[in-house]
Amino acid sequence: MMRLLVLGGTVFLSRTVSDLAVARGYDVSCACRGESGPLPAGVRHIRVDRDDPDGFAGLAGERFDAVVDVARRPSQVRRALTALAERTGHWTFVSTCSVYADDATPGQRVDTAPVLPEAAPNADETDPESYGPLKVACEQAVRTVRGGDAFVVRAGLIGGPHDVTDRFSYWPLRLARGGEVLAPGSPADVMQVIDVRDLAAWLLDSAAAGRTGTYDGVGEAIPFGRLLERVAAGIGVRPRLTWVDQDFLTDQGVQPWMGDRSLPLWLPRPRYAGHSSRNGGPAYRAGLRRRDIAETARDTLAWERAVSREHPVNAGLTEAEETELLAAWHATRSKPGA
Ligand SMILES: NC(=O)c1ccc[n+]([C@@H]2O[C@H](COP(=O)([O-])OP(=O)(O)OC[C@H]3O[C@@H](n4cnc5c(N)ncnc54)[C@H](OP(=O)(O)O)[C@@H]3O)[C@@H](O)[C@H]2O)c1
């Protein structure tokens, strides 16, 4: 039986990894503070604060077949490596496609895409603007200690149950509400979403197989129009979409990607034409499966309804904002010469 240590376990990806590992019959320990949510059933909780220099004391002398780490702070990653690297068989570090320096060129590959410089040792680890460079520094820390046997997965946008960022969830929730739906940019704009359960399963398969190297853990690159079609199919609706020009949205102060007054997943072109169109071929050939986004949408909506908004809505337009924007858009279209 695999002895797995998950550094995390209470939010989204690390929680799903833990859930799936328990379902596979693994012996699963989750090291975290236990502040961000409940631990999955069937895991052993080891109380660890990774900001405490002595935080891993509770794991002294323990050996694991595999570790999965999802941290964003290089100091936390280094502390875990110091405490555990010599007593662990396989080491997975979950990174992000935000490490890449070029968001404009579509179809880039993990082995040739340029990466941002790593954050300076004295960088503010809590600064969200430094997320990419901090993750580069985390990756480097793992490679320095584990050498060629590190497994580093740069995740693209992840969707599915337990996502509290609402970036993918906005769309099943919005399409389920019905009425005229504001769709941003062009239906041909390419997007990528990986289901959290597919990514988690591949991390576990890779640990079991002893896979090493660096991969992009991304979904299929598909046009946004197609993605919304699959979302609609998954939740059983026929949406009435109005595609609204990206320059109009920018002029109206709508944020791309995430956050308040945003249209999640949307990223203006050509500046971000390569952001969500990475070449997932190497990961797919190494066994990363991608379920139909229709299934991701169905299960995400079911989870959102089950938790009935116990978590705040973290992305998208409010109903009033969308109505106002659509009215303004239609007004520009009815002007003579528009
Ligand atoms: N979501 C996406 O679309 C996306 C896209 C690209 C990459 N990623 C990457 O995917 C990974 C997963 O992120 P996630 O958002 O799904 O979160 P997650 O891994 O499910 O949760 C983060 C975990 O870290 C633990 N933690 C935080 N501070 C801690 C501390 N001081 N000491 C001990 N444990 C601590 C939290 O537990 P407690 O707070 O309970 O201690 C929590 O269990 C990350 O590496 C992220 O960069 C995500």
List the helices and strands and how they pair.
Elements: E1 3-7, H1 13-23, E2 27-32, E3 44-47, E4 64-69, H2 74-84, E5 88-96, H3 131-146, E6 150-155, E7 158-159, H4 170-177, E8 180-184, E9 190-192, E10 194-195, H5 196-209, E11 213-217, E12 221-223, H6 224-235, E13 240-244, H7 246-251, E14 255-257, E15 259-260, E16 262-264, H8 281-285, H9 293-307, E17 315-316, H10 319-334
Parallel strand pairs: 1-2, 1-4, 2-3, 4-5, 5-6, 6-11, 7-10, 8-13, 14-16, 15-17
Antiparallel strand pairs: 9-12
Helix pairs in contact: 1-5, 2-3, 4-6, 4-9, 6-9
Can you tell me about this structure?
This protein is α/β, with parallel strands linked by helices and 338 residues long. Helix content is 34%, strand content 21%. The strands form six sheets. Strands 3-2-1-4-5-6-11 form a seven-stranded parallel beta sheet, with helices on both faces. Strands 7-10 form a two-stranded parallel ribbon. It has a two-stranded parallel sheet with strand order 8-13. Helix 4 crosses helix 9. The longest helix is centred in the middle third of the chain and has 16 residues. It is globular, with a radius of gyration of 21 Å. The termini are far apart. The structure holds NADP nicotinamide-adenine-dinucleotide phosphate. The site of NADP nicotinamide-adenine-dinucleotide phosphate has 25 residues, from helix 1 and strand 5.
